[in-house]
Design goal:
8 strands; alpha+beta; Tetrahydropterin Synthase, Chain A; single chain
Length: 319
Amino acid sequence: MPKEKARRRSRGNDTQIDLRINIISIVIILAFVGIGLTVTVSQHNPAGVLLGAVIGGILAQSPKVAKQWERAVVLRLGKYVGLRGPGLFWVIPFIESVSSWIDQRVITTNFKAEETLTSDTVPVNVDAVLFWMVYDPEKAALEVQDYALAVSWAAQTALRDIIGRTYLSDLLRGRERIEADLQKLIDERSNPWGVTVQSVEMRDIVIPASLQDAMSREAQASREKQARIILGQAEVEIAALFDQASEKYQQNPTALHLRAMNILYEGLKEKGALMLVPSTAVESMGLGGLIGAAALEQQMLASRGRPKPPGGEERGKAV
């Protein structure tokens, strides 16, 4: 597609050579036709109109107008004589001609590489856009037949070359580096034609669907691995903190007893909680009374919340 667009644009430029008509040419034609018409009316001879139209048509080919962003390549009897424009300039009819009009604005060209193998033999489709401009109209006109088509071909072959020596992981993660390498490679190939590359941007990279699933599973496994590593590091840090706490509790038994009592209280205050405490711990820390009080409190709370049996109050009175 890019080559066809460039070819159509080139053909359009070629047709503009003959179809460009400016106001100066129109004025010249009308002036000579008017003079011929005056001669014809005065002498009653139609040759005056015909002669005026022919002379006006010939001289109308002399004035040319180039737009601000254009440069006209002028040939004299087939030999290059220079660039003209922007603005109004004159050529000698039938001796000098404008071979091409060079557009010096920034031009965008879409190009792609389909089913191209990477360095690790993975087929990918890459779509990119090229921003370039003509910095030397003389080279663009004389050194290459169709500079727009040549730039398109150079960009496509350079993209295939870059993909062929790049791994898929680097292609997906290092777009900026690949774009810079691609710009440098295209610039080296197009500089002899008077063309410079402004930038290259990769718009899309398409990989096979089966490989997308495999990469998704690999990414998920990598995330799970990272989560396990973080959990292990947390366990190490917790163990280190417990080690420091054990040193503090070894020097202060009272603090250890208070901590144990707090743990038991936090565990027993929940409804329906069951905690097994070794008898040695109960004896060493004197927790029997605390545990008994906590159990009694749990039993009282349970009895208060239990519904009374029907008729129980009357049976008590009768007794």
